[in-house]
Write a structure and sequence with these properties.
Strands 1-2 form a two-stranded antiparallel sheet. The chain is built from 2 helices and 2 strands. It has one domain. The protein is α+β, with helices and mostly antiparallel strands.
C-alpha cells in the first residue's frame, strides 16, 4: 500500500519529497509545479 502525506510548514517553501529524497523545490525553481510535472517525477 502506498501512502501520501501532506506536511504543512511555514516560510513559503513548497517541496515534494519521496522516501526522503527531494524531487521538487519551489525555493530552487521559483515557481509552483504543475500536477503533470509532479506526476511525471513520481513515475520516474
Amino acid at each position: 500500500m502506498e501512502k501520501m502525506e501532506l506536511v504543512p510548514a511555514s516560510g513559503g517553501v513548497f517541496e515534494v519529497t519521496v522516501n526522503g529524497e527531494k524531487i521538487y523545490s519551489k525555493d530552487e525553481t521559483g515557481m509552483f509545479p504543475s500536477s503533470e510535472e509532479i506526476i511525471a517525477k513520481l513515475e520516474n
